[in-house]
Amino acid sequence: MSSINPVPAKHVVVTDFDGGEGILVDLNTKKYYQLNETAMIVWKGLENGKSVGEIVADITANYEVAPEKATLSVQRIVDNFQTYKLVASQ
Amino acid sequence: MIPDLKGWLPVDADVVDGRPGLRWLDMSGVSLTEPSFQQTVERAKADGSRGELFTEFDVLLQVEKLLDSVEPTGFIFHSSRCGSTLVANACRAVSNSIVLSEANPIDKLIARFITDAAGDKVKESLYSVFVRGVVRALGQRRTGDEQHLFIKFACSSTSQIDRIRCIWPNVPWLFLYRDPVETIVSNLNDIPPWLVDKDRRVLAAITSVSPASVAEMKLEELCARSIGSFYSTAHRLANTNALLLNYTQLSVSEIAGVLKFFNVRPSKEEMDEIAHRSGFYSKEVSGTREFVADAQAKQQGASDLIREMAAAWASEPYRLLEEKRLQSNDQKQLNQS
Description:
Number of helices of chain B: 15
Radius of gyration of chain A: 12 Å
Structural class of chain B: alpha/beta
Helix content of chain A: 40-55%
Oligomer: heterodimer
Shape of chain B: globular
Mean pLDDT of chain B: 92
Structural class of chain A: alpha+beta
Number of domains of chain B: 1
Order of helices and strands of chain B: EEHEHEHEHHEHEHHHHEHHHHH
Radius of gyration of chain B: 20 Å
Strand content of chain B: 5-15%
Mean pLDDT of chain A: 90
Helix content of chain B: 40-55%
Order of helices and strands of chain A: EEEEHHHE
Largest sheet of chain A: 3 strands, antiparallel
Strand order of the largest sheet of chain B: 5-6-4-7-8
CATH superfamily of chain B: P-loop containing nucleotide triphosphate hydrolases
Distance between the termini of chain A: 15 Å
CATH topology of chain B: Rossmann fold
Number of strands of chain A: 5
Shape of chain A: globular
Low-confidence stretches of chain B: none
Largest interface: A-B, 12 and 15 residues
């Protein structure tokens, strides 16, 4: 797990939709990304300056999911954000 | 950088240089007093000094969190030429209300559910967010006192009621409709833009035929199939959050009932104003042309083809809708007794 906290990039706008889901817009590329509920929790966590470990702790505290599985899911989502340059390293 | 759009309203949805987006107009100081939103836009543009701007849709996501907007109070859907403008005008008589009557940016964005998002869940979500954003932009508090937001959609948006309900599941909605023969006669006497839309994909989706078939179809058939589809959609989706109203029921007391259904309690002065306005032709800007009931004239003016098409495509859905309305009324009376 990376020790550097990723943060949402300034050129990305998020809006919530349909309960817990959301849409991200990359204003540079004009690409849109639909986030499921888990990805939205991760995004909001990053917005609030939380580390990946803290987001995992939030998820395991609120949902019935094993820490190992939650860690894998959160890391995969963060990796996707990084691949698409939706987050920057702090 | 986010443009400062306070006081600006999106007035149309368009494609500029291959980029779909919104045309904005500085509407500072302009009240939405005309029977239709686009009439107000024309008045505002006529002074020739107002700023105009084109943005892509994503601006909606940027500004929606910045604007102080009124949440929707009630939605008006209709089958065309059935008194919906009268109801919208009544909503306008309520103090501190915003009435968006067939605003192009809303209905054109809703049409994109058909033309650009069919079968694509991500795009459907995206356009849902844009529709919500454009309503927030249009429903922004410009005087600070606005409390109610009523939206009268274009009749073609009736086909998307289920998607609109997904965005605002708790907003009560009205479906207003009229006898199919009278509706077709009215549409053919004064052909509306939706019936001759060059992008035939919307009508094709409404009538469940191909765009090529729409192009070849006589207007009588196209209109009959369309309103039949609107009746069917309303029949399928009407629930406890919906009110069905037939043109023949329209009266000041029924309009008061619609406002009550929207959880609005007009004052005596506002009801007097509604009664006064209902005596005039609803779509005229000056509000001075007296309303004359024309159901009989429309029935007499119907051609054989109109009657044939109404019978083939609209009469049965109309009958089913009427049946549902009457059952619903019976149920309400039972609940009250």
